[in-house]
């Protein structure tokens, strides 16, 4: 996986700019939206790892967007942090009731918000952002974005890196091409499913120099699996 992607939905340009810069400094990839329509367009491009959602938006409110996204299969698992000037208890309860994972009231410091983002990501992903993954001497370090085999660094393209990260965090399970497309590329990405095969071949080639290409296995008629078992 590359940098965690944050969708920032906020209608005030000054706040968007400030948060965008703060998030990028912390290593996040940021997509912006000023209203619900733009947010839907960003979601169609790529599903984020987390959504920062302002309560008060032009047109449809952040609360209604959160309610909608928590019902849709594509976005129901994406954590949402509500941003709002509403500090009353009833408002906080309402925001959490529609599915928000956290609630941050304005004004807030970027440092506090980033700490809350990392806490939500740890809680919802089930593992730490910086957790090093290892299988038979193959090591993927998300903190440094490096892949090594028996201590030797190997070159892996960005898409192949995301594929490998997904495989290593979901071992021993078979995924179809369409499932890999959804999980690794995001929903509504219009590429041929056979493109998956091209990236699988590139990943195997990168791993093959050290004899680890067999970890990425083809399951005929079903898809692909990452396994240390033959």
Compile the SSE list and pairings.
Elements: E1 5-9, H1 13-25, E2 29-33, H2 36-45, E3 50-54, H3 62-69, E4 80-84, H4 89-97, E5 102-105, H5 110-125, E6 133-135, E7 138-141, E8 146-149, E9 152-154, H6 158-169, H7 177-185, H8 195-208, E10 216-219, E11 223-226
Characterization of the model:
The chain has 230 residues and is of the alpha/beta class. The protein folds into 2 domains: 5-125, Rossmann fold; 133-226, Arc Repressor Mutant, subunit A (Orthogonal Bundle), CATH 1.10.10. 40% of the residues lie in helices and 20% in strands. It contains 8 helices and 11 strands. The strands form 3 sheets. A 5-stranded parallel β-sheet has the order 2-1-3-4-5, sandwiched between helices. Strands 6-7-8-9 form a 4-stranded antiparallel β-sheet, covered by helices on one side. Strand 4 (80-84), helix 4 (89-97) and strand 5 form a beta-alpha-beta unit. Helix 6 (158-169) crosses helix 7 (177-185). The radius of gyration is 19 Å and the shape is elongated.
Spatial order of strands in the largest sheet: 2-1-3-4-5
Could you name the CATH homologous superfamily of the largest domain?
Response regulator
Tally of structural domains: 2
Category from helices, strands and their pairing: alpha/beta
CATH topology of the largest domain: Rossmann fold
| Low-pLDDT runs | none
- Give the strand tally: 11
Portion in strands? 15-25%
- Average of pLDDT: 84
- Report the CATH C-level class of the largest domain: Alpha Beta
Which CATH architecture of the largest domain is right?
3-Layer(aba) Sandwich
Number of helices: 8
């Amino acid at each position: 996986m590359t940098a965690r992607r944050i969708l920032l939905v906020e209608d005030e340009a000054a706040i968007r700019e400030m948060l965008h810069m703060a998030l990028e400094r912390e290593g996040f990839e940021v997509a912006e939206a000023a209203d619900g329509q733009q947010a839907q367009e960003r979601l169609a491009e790529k599903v984020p790892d987390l959504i920062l959602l302002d309560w008060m938006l032009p047109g449809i409110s952040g609360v209604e967007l959160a309610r909608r996204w928590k019902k849709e299969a594509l976005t129901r698992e994406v954590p949402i942090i509500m941003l709002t000037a509403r500090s009353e208890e009833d408002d906080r309860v309402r925001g959490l009731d529609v599915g928000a994972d956290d609630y941050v009231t304005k004004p807030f410091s970027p440092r506090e918000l980033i700490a809350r983002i990392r806490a939500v990501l740890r809680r919802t992903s089930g593992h730490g952002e910086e957790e090093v993954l290892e299988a038979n001497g193959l090591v993927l370090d998300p903190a440094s974005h490096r892949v090594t085999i028996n201590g030797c660094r190997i070159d892996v393209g960005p898409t192949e890196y995301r594929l490998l990260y997904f495989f290593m965090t979901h071992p021993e399970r078979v995924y179809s091409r369409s499932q890999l497309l959804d999980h690794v590329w995001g929903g509504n990405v219009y590429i041929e499913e056979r493109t998956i095969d091209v990236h699988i071949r590139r990943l195997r080639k990168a791993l093959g120099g050290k004899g680890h290409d067999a970890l990425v296995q083809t399951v005929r008629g079903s898809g692909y699996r990452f396994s240390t078992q033959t």
